[in-house]
């Protein structure tokens, strides 16, 4: 069996192939076809290893994979068309699906040795793919990153390599609907000074206003809110070394705030919270005009405004001036990565460079992936932003001086943490666990997940 | 195992082992079963055995599997979520399968024949099953069982304040059982087809003998339908053991709230694809296979006592 | 001898008296009215979610969750036109891809599963119970653990991003569900018919084609309908094996309307879900006639 012996190429497929071929061979003595194709694969693999310059006369084909909904698919197709118009010798095959399907498909493709050449990545899985050698260190290629702020860029950097380049940035913030505030007869807070105490009072007051609206939608199922909270105390969810970096007490306090809101009508019952959690932006309290506040990323502002049919405000998190430092941070919304065994690394690098640095691509994508990470591109396309994007851009500009630093790249296994947090959060909200038990359980499970 | 009981029924057929018919039939079996043998060898067996091998490895999908012996299997015994998922699956299997089959059989008998608008009714009752695991199901289910859903709107007319059924740990599993019963279309169709297959002559003979309808139902319809009931029972059980899509879609993949809808296969999927522990997921799959096989074998053993074959 | 006769078609809306007409006419009319009432009530409950989806598909996208009532305040059919063209190709492209896969699968399952079922139901061969058990065991593993080895296998064969991995297995009888289904139906056919035919000098091929196939039309129709519907709705394997949007099918395309992390086109999703339900519904509506029209044996003397 040739594929059994070919040790140099595509090692991650070797053992699995061997098993398959061996089981098949047991019952069937000849399996010529499988041999032929794997021999072909072997020679392809060898070619990929050789470094290559971009040759305008050579034909390249790239597969580019991303997740999203139809809006993003249309935009990405336009970007592809713009790029291939410039470089007609490159063909780019799109490969897209929704968020859940995306990761299943990507992992299966990698296992089968068919890694897409250019891959959209997310912070939670970046290290999984980077440390296991699936995606390439982009420092080896000619991709300009000098226009991206260092604290943003550094999140895609670990083990001495740049495994993903941020394409856009977001801020996790509190979205508020002034109309609901008014209806409830509650004044909008001053987000530069409000404390966690005031936040709770406001939310509960709105819930008690008799207007059948809630003050806040629970957001404890998602890590970033807690990250802000912990950072205000000088702690982190993950340390740069990839360990947990917060005190259990912090998480207990965090959950007690949510429980206080829940008990006093500031946020919905636990079961309604669970429903909202799986509903996404359009079905959220803000999106359906049933709540005054919610925790969302800045690039979700437009979607929620559209669903609500009214203008919303972006607010800083409570407690930014209360704790020992500010907790908010810029988060790269997505990363572009390159397969480590692409056959056309030069072309892939050109394409990544185009998406990150070319104002033409920026003009198409606008804020789809968050505001452009490249500051030059951001300035160049500002004029075309929608009202929501302009609001987000101004908000971020205001924050620039307040934000201290970025968060470290989450460790391998961080993809699981979101699910663990969501589960324990609902155990706490349903009062099947005390916040103390929840914090203990969370630490135990996360430590196992991130090894 | 299930072979055993099959054997017992097959033995009754004419021409026991090593008889001339068996030899002649053997050659014909190669013809009739040819495609299946080829499919087994080329398509089915490889991945099946590969997953068995992977269950003895540490495999993250992104790098080579590493052989670790039975570690995955021993780990399962001390995994509280796995035990929880077994409980969830067991409740689901033993409650929803009988309910769904009863609903399907009842409707099939009602919709068998002799009334106006039959095609329309059948189609209407089958429609929900067409939706299958569509992403829309999650939304639709919340419209009924959510906090502001249909059920609670009806309850509020009677002054009862309901709650989010689909999202409460005590009730979420029940709504999934209802969802499964709601999609009884497939077994209903199979029952309908089975009813068509019952030879008319039995009824004719019975009515000549003056048997009442009820008597005909119990002594002709039900016995003649037992092979089909048995089929539905076996396949629905196998299917229910692997329930995934509806729970995945309705809970957004989490098996929540608080693991109350964490089906075995959903947990297996989370391990395999979200946590990239495909080795562990494979071991779980083989545990599931063994449990399903035992259940199915039991089913075949018991079938001797109640399934009536014409041959 | 055997007398094969077409069973009267009861689907033609002609109420037929029951087998034994013991009850009085008035009694049976009241009964039938009651039956209809029960069925209609049940039908409304069953169909509520679908009606909600239909109603949502004609609401403006941003009103779907703000005004979740069943009766739309305003009618807006733009979800249909927008949704049809929202993706890379017009939606008809995905319908066509699905249709190709579905037709191949139906044909494959009908042929291969009927053949295999005949062997299990009527032939006597070595280790038959063992093979039967193996057949059932092959459907006891969840797809999520076999999909990766399958992917590797099909990748080795160069079949990724073609319809082959979705269709070829059906011609090789990998859907045990239908084999077992047909085995049960074949075993329900009186053996006297085979023996009579054998006395007439018929071999297995003739018995298969002239007795088994015509007598199990309901089972074949069931197989065809189910294969159609299940393949039409099958998301996971189509997602994994098809990597180029040119090859995407209806369920894969439908998923791309929603993104849990960002803005989703719910209106388009509901509208295109309705569109994609139409072919299956039609297939069902016409196919279910064969569940009635099956030829039944009316007498053996």
Description:
The complex is a heterotrimer of chains A (451), B (311) and C (301). With 451 residues, chain A is of the alpha+beta class. Helix content of chain A is 47%, strand content 14%. Chain A has helices at 2-5, 11-27, 32-49, 70-86, 99-111, 123-131, 150-153, 178-184, 196-207, 223-232, 248-263, 270-279, 301-308, 345-357, 359-365, 375-381, 387-399, 417-429, 435-449; strands spanning 60-67, 90-97, 118-121, 157-158, 161-162, 165-176, 214-216, 236-238, 244-245, 291-297, 313-315, 330-338, 371-372. In chain A, β1, α4 (70-86) and β2 form a beta-alpha-beta unit. The model of chain A is unreliable at 1-12 and 25-50 (pLDDT under 50). Chain B has a single domain, classed as MetI-like fold. Chain B has 15 helices and two strands. Chain B has a two-stranded antiparallel sheet. In chain B, α5 packs parallel to α9 (172-182) and α5 crosses α14 (264-274). Chain C has helices spanning 25-57, 78-85, 91-122, 128-137, 143-156, 164-171, 176-188, 191-199, 204-215, 217-233, 236-241, 250-255, 266-287; strands spanning 2-6, 295-300. Chains in contact: A-B, A-C, B-C. At the B-C interface, α1, α2, α3, α6 and α7 of B face α1, α3, α4, α5 and α6 of C.
Helical proportion of chain B?
Answer: over 70%
Give the oligomer, counting copies of the same chain as homo and different chains as hetero.
heterotrimer
SS strand fraction of chain A: 5-15%
Write out the CATH superfamily name of the largest domain in chain A: Periplasmic binding protein-like II
